[in-house]
Design a protein that fits this description.
Elements lengths: L10 H24 L5 E4 L4 H6 L6 H8 L4 E2 L6 E10 L6 E12 L2 E8 L12
Antiparallel strand pairs: 1-3, 2-3, 3-4, 4-5
Length: 129
């Protein structure tokens, strides 16, 4: 303490603090970039195992039992259900995205047409992560 009752900070301590902050800031910034390399999964997982259970003529309730509720139900096209899935990998430089989907068309509340898009995985365990 100095003679007037306040504590004095030595110039050496101030320099060490500045150097510490100067070294720590870039490290935190670099590590912060790692947080952007996450996987983002959206939509309904549809697998070949599920597709094997799907048959033309199934009711909407039977389809929901196998696949769950569809991701998209267009109010202007109530006879069309869309099951879409996407999985985004990595950050800006190494980004990759897997997308696939299933569209079901109904006539008189029964499956009349089955349309697949993309490479649908064999099972949920085989989804590339």
């Amino acid at each position: 303490m100095s003679s007037n009752g306040s504590s004095a900070v030595s110039p050496k301590a101030t320099t060490l603090q500045r150097v510490g902050v100067g070294l720590l800031a870039p490290l935190l910034f670099a590590l912060g970039g790692c947080a952007h390399k996450i996987e983002v999964q959206q939509g309904n997982v549809v697998t070949q195992e599920q597709l094997q259970q799907l048959q033309q003529g199934m009711s909407k309730d039977e389809v929901i039992t196998v696949f769950g509720s569809p991701l998209l139900q267009d109010p202007f096209h109530p006879n069309r259900w869309d099951y879409q899935f996407s999985l985004a990998h990595g950050g800006k430089s190494g980004e990759r995205s897997d997308r696939y989907g299933l569209t079901l068309l109904f006539q008189e509340n029964r499956v009349s047409e089955i349309i697949t898009k993309g490479k649908i995985p064999l099972s949920a365990d085989t989804i590339v992560r």
